[in-house]
Amino acid sequence: MKPEIISRFSKERYLLSLTEDDFRDLVVRPLLLRMGLLDGRDFCGPLEHGKDCAFVIDNPLQIREVWVVQTKRGNLNLGKKSNANVVEAATQMKTALATKVIFVTAREKVAPSKAVLCASGKINHSAREYVVEQAHDPRVVFLDVDDLLPKIDKLFPELWLGIDANAHPYFRSLKKSLETATEAQTISDILPEGDAVSAATDKAFVNLQVFRTTTTTRMARGKPVRTPSFEEFPVEGLLKRKENKILLLGDAGAGKSTTLKRLAYKEIERGLAAEKDKFNIPVILRAIDLGSETDFVDCLTNATKRVLHSDATVLGVRELQAGRVVAFIDALDELANDDARGHVLKLVNDFHTRYPSCKAIITSRQYAFVEAMPQLKQYVQFAISQINFKQVEQIIRRLHKEKRLPEETSTELFRRLQEVHGLELNPLLVTVFAATSEYGRQDVPANITELFKKYTEMMLGRWDATKGLRQQYHAPIKDFILCAIGFEMHRRKEISISEDEFKKIVTNVLETRGLEADLGKILEEILYRSGLLRVADGRVEFRHLLLQEFFAGRGIPNKDFLETCISSDWWRRAVVFFFGEHPGDFASLDKIRSVLSARPDFEVYQAAVTSGLALQACYLVEMKDKIAFAEWIVATLARTHAALVETDESFPMTRFLCYYVFGREAVALGFLRTRYTAMMSSWEKEGISAKEKDLRTFWIIVGLLESGAMAEAEELLKSFKPADLQLLFAVHLGCYLIQNIRVSTKGDKRIAENICKLIAPKITHLRDKFIKEFSSELVEVRKGKVEALPQPKTEEVPLLPHCAPVA
Known about the structure:
The protein is an alpha/beta fold. Helices cover 49% and strands 13% of the residues. The chain has 4 domains: 3-162, Trna Endonuclease, Chain: A, domain 1 (3-Layer(aba) Sandwich); 168-384, P-loop containing nucleotide triphosphate hydrolases (Rossmann fold); 386-444; 631-807, no CATH class. β12, α10 (338-354) and β13 (359-364) form a beta-alpha-beta unit.
């Protein structure tokens, strides 16, 4: 914020308008704290002894001093006659200096070093002389409006945000923006403007659920016992949570952005109906837009000004200190590296240190940095639950009001959609399917790439459908251009580029193919008519990161580039889209395997996970090649276990569970159901160790569970007796998730329950080890304070998972 743009007259008038209590609490106390003074405890009342509050500070000799402060509203002037207000101030200063401040904790009484008389108006020279004379003490210090204004401008500029603040025009503008899904809005909508009702509204919103696993303490036989527990509730419940720093996790397309949009919409509805000072002010931001910012309050105010299209103020220090500002920060994962993420988190965390009552909700995909970054340890994590059949039907009805599918048809489509490789069933996947389908069995594609390809082809031809004009440029040309754009943006690790840069790339693509004369028309069709891109503030970006990954993956130029990006989280989905475009290209997949031998084990593990997802998209590869490659994936995951889990003795179970959670999607191979016995029989010829065999068998079981082959997994577990019981612990966790979170049939849930009962007696001793380990790392918020979890007593309880939210 630039305080110099506000007139001195307005600033003085604002300070004079405050009550004495507000002047003390909203201005003086926070200002002195920012000047380096500490404590600031309140003494207002009948026993104040001349002071409103007291501060401590270490002088240059490192001796602690106590400063006491008395605040006064308005001007303190003394003419020929004594002024009652000035006389009272002089008496209070004298009393304050004569009374020691008691510090109960330290059991000491300390005489004040300074007594500060602070006024919201001016203190004239005569009044100053009178106070010093009556106090008979040179320790009196004066701060009036002339002294305060430059200090506030420098250290506390957001105070001026409260001048003439009015939230209701902002509420109305943001509500309209959310309802119409305008291009200027900061949240992506997969469907173009005008083709869909905004997902934030009551009419269209599908009530998603969020969950987390945590622990509760209960008394058993007179001893406190910490028990893992599962918590799930509608996403709107996040607004009522007492936690003020929340990290919302979800995979690509799970509905993270839509959730933030909905939460902001609900706050707006409450604000428009509430009385003054009884509402919260929602502000929607994107993490990618905060990279060059230095102050989070400035980010909030600039965001409100963009919505209002004016410089009017919406929030002030009163709202900030009262915790009536809710910041929604979308897509932390879209920042390409930890330095950029760390900068954004520092902005938010510094803001929260100053205004701890304000709520901040950040969204991200569940990448490895979520567990690795220390700045995120203080956030309470929730994950978006996988959508169910009822929610799928709601999405379809929302997009096609006239469609109501027969139950048997919709059930079969739902089942087959779950089998689309490369992405778990989520609102984005269903929305894309609903936008392109006539709801026949033949509509369900073989992989995620073909589903998105059908959708983008429809959108690239949208001009013809909506305008009734002859299609000027075939969709393949525009698709080729977008692949080049997507690849270049992804290669740079950017999610937006300038319009000039966009045009430069398109020009180069067209000129090298002899189509430069068509530049203007093609740009218009791609940028403004396809509905796949957003143009705002001179920047161009895809409407959803998954769309960028789709085009980037299909724009990968050659096999050599695959070798450079196969171990990168950033490129994982794009690589899956590449192989979805080339579902029979086993040679490229096999070449990746051959170049990994010299790489570090962590990179090999990451490459194996990505390769497993890619294999699921390669439905035209011959079965013998699929089996051979799956054997390599299982063997690689097993081989990297030692490097990922055993090399560091700190938090061994945490490391193992991360190894399991991030690797499990690589083995969700549908053909395991009928081929796993043949794969396991080949191990005998290799002469592998018992430990290696246990790890490979573990990953086969995980693959069976992930691909829905529950009966086969149950049968294999009956003979599975690993030396490392952590393997069974992970299987128990996977079955628990199938029981409680993932979309499964009643039969599969029943088998998962049976497996849990089979395993539980063998791993009860791991429960205390698991919670004990987490007790030294996890934190939970209690009454606004962050406290370490105490270590549990050894008392048997039913085994449930306690880990970061996964689904």
